[in-house]
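Hi L.,

You mentioned the student needs an example of a multi-chain input paired with its predicted structure. This one should do, with 472 residues in total across all chains.
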Amino acid sequence: MTQTIAPVLGEATVQELRETGRGESLTPSDEGYAEACRVWNGAHDGRRPALVVRCTGAADVIAAIGFARSTHLPIAVRGGAHSIAGFSTCDGGLVIDLSPMKGVRVDPETRRATVGGGAVWADVDHETQAYGLATTGGLVSSTGVGGFTLGGGIGWLMRRHGLACDNLVAADVVTADGRLVRASEAENADLVWGLRGGGGNFGIVTQFEFELHAVGPMVYAGPIFYAADAARELLHAFRDWAGDAPDEITALVDLTTAPPLPVIPAEWHGKKVAAFIAVSAGPLDMGESLVADFRTVAEPIADLLGPMPYQVIQTLIDPLWQKGLNSYFKATNLSGLDDELIDRLTELHLAAPGPQCEIHVHQMGGAVARVTDDATAFTERSMPFVLNAVTGWHDAEVGSAHRDWARSVIGAAENVSTGRAYVNFLGDADADAARSSYGHQTYARLVALKNEHDPSNVFRLNQNIEPQAADA
Ligand SMILES: Cc1cc2nc3c(=O)[nH]c(=O)nc-3n(C[C@H](O)[C@H](O)[C@H](O)COP(=O)(O)OP(=O)(O)OC[C@H]3O[C@@H](n4cnc5c(N)ncnc54)[C@H](O)[C@@H]3O)c2cc1C
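Structure written out for the whole complex:
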């Protein structure tokens, strides 16, 4: 693929881009190209773009889009490079790598943070916690702010403070025709609606502005681990508790395998376990009382739920999900958690083909559900739970077994699946999945926005909203 486009990518033209831009432009013959190709998900690391442009600001982004359009190269946009479906790289195209743009500025008076388009959550948490502030970020701190927020953003603060996209106040966006526009409720309100859940379909965000909240520095947080045979009781208790829990707490049940961490008794390492994991961002004593039931649902193997710095819970599972791991997710929104599904999940947990096969049942509701469905492109806010089958593996040979297992977990939820899903948890790039994930009404509105901002689908390596042909 790279060879076919090499003639189009004449050195003189790349040279021009190098002279006008401030960031590096790397082709396969450049030193550093191999490293520049690397993305978080090892399953997509084999791709070889024709050019990787490491942008240092909006001007570089504008130049890179112009270059790609004039040379007819497909564009892959990269923030934190965590895309499960592999959108942050491509074969033979141009990667617009925003990772040098990771500056974060906090205004403690207005409780706002401006965040570079290539920052990761560790960058944001580091700066905001200096003022005892935070906004909803990811469960792993190396996840990019960009893809995470634009898809929605499910995190530990969401039931109290909303999804990441609900805290997005404004964005600077470079559009497909190379214009830098501001999107907020006051300017281009339709665009900011689409950026709150519609993914990278409408342009490249060079700067995000987020609302911040007082959080921590200590929160009541962490996991309680139980033996796998307690999974059924745990899921029943979780289901009955989740709907009435106050907004302060956000929790999930994780059916997993005990990692070899010193905090878990050695005899459990590598064995199937169930975990209740929660973050209560209210007063610490409130957190303790909110989780009391989970201390008696079964005998814990390890109870690590207690007061801890917010930044510790935000980085707690980072070592398990490191760059280079192969990964595949599949997810669905649930209308409920019935006994049949609980039984199937506990069986599938025991049948998991590897130690990094996890079944996550996220508690939704709270502030997420109080935003009306038409207020943002992220929809179906009334769903009580999100089911996510998360897999990671090192040996390429076991990849298909992991993908099949994830698909069977989601297949098991057929009766209580709403048929829709959170786009950031979809490991396949599938136009029909994107369409059904948003639902008919929201999808139609997204198409109208795409027609306006990107009618030739310049930004198509994403859960794609296909523009409608003018004569359609
Ligand atoms: C280990 C791990 C943990 C995760 N945990 C969570 C979690 O807790 N909650 C959750 O909701 N999701 C989670 N996810 C999913 C995550 O939200 C998506 O993978 C998301 O796309 C990651 O964003 P990124 O910027 O790192 O990705 P990238 O791969 O860099 O980008 C993915 C796509 O997003 C778009 N994009 C990224 N940045 C920009 C930008 N600045 N402007 C325009 N478009 C942009 C582009 O279309 C790009 O192709 C997790 C993923 C992984 C791998």
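You could point out the following to them. Residues 58-71 form the longest helix (14 residues). The chain has 15 helices and 19 strands.

Best wishes,
N.
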